[in-house]
């Protein structure tokens, strides 16, 4: 369903079309949008109430029964799209050309570049309005670490579940995702940029997998039922169902 595949880098193409911005060569070497030093001042409690805290049946997760467990993050400030690409020149490109350029530009930069159909974005946004939170097992070595994330479009914010349980809203994100909707109407295309905040926690490939998997739980009707259960029927939520959906072993 989703268009999230990156291609081999074609830097010559980026320079030739002049879409990627730079003061010298028109091929911007992008700076990381988020830094560890700047995170604390941007992380605040959400005004909206926490999701239900009675997670009583989480196999492998344990329970955490305080109201601060899932009060969420407020989004960090994303890098403006106009600071990454020349929007005026981009308007002359087809959706396929623009998606290719966007994907290729982000390769090897510590960022994840992807795109998706605008209709899928609107479905993701609609479903996230009522179900903002979920957990995903990330396989590492001979086991998995559990990632907790919040969807508050146009942002997705990922951190470790154990870090979040220990620090609440002061837990720093491992990985953030921003969706750019400037071309949603004209090209039916939404550009996606992922930033790995802590490379010691996640590799680029792991971050890409998390982004794609998180979106699949909101865009796939069967998987979305688990997201609904997590947010609305937490007493019935079983983490093993997520493992089974991802064909991971139950440890």
Automatic annotation (TrEMBL):
Where it sits in the cell: the answer is: Mitochondrion
Which key words tag this protein in UniProt? Mitochondrion, Transit peptide
> Which coarse location class describes where this protein primarily resides?
mitochondrion
A GO cellular component term found in this entry reads:
mitochondrion
Keyword Mitochondrion belongs to the record: yes
Query: InterPro entries of this UniProt entry?
Result: ATP11 (IPR010591)
Name the Gene Ontology biological process terms: mitochondrial proton-transporting ATP synthase complex assembly
The record ties this protein, via Pfam families, to:
ATP11
Q: Which PANTHER family match?
A: ATP SYNTHASE MITOCHONDRIAL F1 COMPLEX ASSEMBLY FACTOR 1 (PTHR13126:SF0), CHAPERONE ATP11 (PTHR13126)
State the family it belongs to.
Belongs to the ATP11 family.
Q: What protein name applies here?
A: Uncharacterized protein
Its gene is LOC113731021
